[in-house]
Amino acid sequence: MNKELLKQEKLQNYINGKWCDPVNGQYADVVNPATAESLVKVPLSGLEEVGSAAEAARKAQKEWALVPAPQRAEVLYRVGNIMKEQKERLSKLLTMENGKVLEEARGEVQEGIDMAFYMAGEGRRLFGQTTPAELKDKFAMSVRAPVGVVGIITPWNFPIAIATWKSFPAIVAGNAVVWKPATETPIMAFELAKIFEQAGLPEGVINVVFGAGSTVGESMIDQKNIRVISFTGSNDVGRNIAAKCGQKLKKVSLEMGGKNAVIVMDDADLSLAVEGILWSAFGTSGQRCTACSRVIVHEKVKTELEERLLNEMAGLSIGNGLDESIKVGPIINKNGLEKIKNYIEVGKQEGAKLLAGGYVMENGEHKQGNYFAPTLFTDVTPEMRIAMEEIFGPVVSLIPVKSLEEAIEINNQVEYGLSSAIFTSDVNKVFTAQRDLDTGIVYVNAGTTGAEIHLPFGGTKGTGNGHRDSGVAALDVFTEWKAIYVDFSGKLQRAQIDVQ
Known about the structure:
Layout: H1 2-5, E1 13-15, E2 18-20, E3 27-31, E4 38-43, H2 47-64, H3 69-85, H4 87-98, H5 102-121, E5 129-132, E6 138-146, E7 149-153, H6 161-172, E8 176-180, H7 187-199, E9 206-208, H8 213-222, E10 226-232, H9 235-247, E11 251-255, E12 260-264, H10 270-282, E13 292-298, H11 302-313, H12 334-350, E14 353-356, E15 360-361, E16 371-372, E17 375-378, H13 385-388, E18 395-401, H14 404-412, E19 416-417, E20 419-423, H15 427-436, E21 441-444, E22 460-461, H16 475-478, E23 479-487
Parallel strand pairs: 7-8, 7-10, 8-9, 10-11, 12-13, 12-20, 13-18, 17-18, 20-21
Antiparallel strand pairs: 1-2, 3-4, 5-6, 6-23, 14-17, 15-16, 19-22
């Protein structure tokens, strides 16, 4: 199957419009987590490639910034159309390298298509502001200016969607990009670089350097020419990036973890709530930063909700995502499996009651891949580690509460603040929750996943540092505000001094 979809045996870096092998000749295998099959080899590049990419981006950006923004946008329109034409092929490749089921892969590719058209629209906006000047015969306005060269570091769990959230607004705003994709899922980056090339993006505006974070990622931070680092990944790595960028006075945008909760009140539609929890918790095998890993449920409906969840979980099909009947795919790698296993033991030791799952699936059709059974804990207390720490797997903890106020308090006490949800039929509770939940995203009568590209994506507290991906807010990461004053009085006028 992979030879039909992906012709080459080795991927190449894309630097200054040229495809090139790693200087050091080092590669790693890209492994299908569903089958343990080696798909392709990815370069493990070094410092030389990062320097070349940053210099190419610096030179290209000066010319690209002079291209009128509507013309820059035309490239993104072409990118979006090419992605539409290749959607099915891209989706299958995504499933093969990442493991998520084909239905979800199609959704992720569609997200990239949507982002292309949305950000292309910004080519005719990129709005600034005009404002009255305080002095006579004087004009005042602000405009967005490109930052210059942008470095983006993207994760394996959404290998094309998150890349489009970052690269498309950067490009339409007049920047050039150096991109380090995750080595676990590099095929989407390779394919997107080819699409940019086909769409006619000038050489050097997008550069893709494959390699480890400890080499390529660190080198990107050190590059003088790279003025912004936009990172999605773990909290520990994000903190390290923020510290190093802070020392260099570089702008940094971080989107990190989540410990997201669905609140189920006693007046909720339980059938809808169960559907929302299942999709949020077990979609992408729980490997989303927005995945539901806590269910904060009113004690009056706790038992019924447990029974319904267990019944539906028993019917989940688990396996290779290329099979259209499969609903839950594999975990990305063995390290991910081991982390989840360790948290299961932590939960047991803390006194949580394991109702379902809690084990690696190693027999029969699951023998070759990295499969973990969908897991449900109950009688979890808010202070337990499984209720506080990000597990990044198909593990849900049920926490009983007596009131909405208690539910909101428990939701807010974790260190993350990405996504939250509430199921209720009471409009007063809806407005109370959307006001008081301290997350960057709030859903009402829906699960914690499913963000749309035209609204800002990101969170509070340990989830990020205040910036947002997606939506118009993404432009703030990749532009600087420039204030412009035009005095046509023919004389020197001093603001605040010469005001009559």
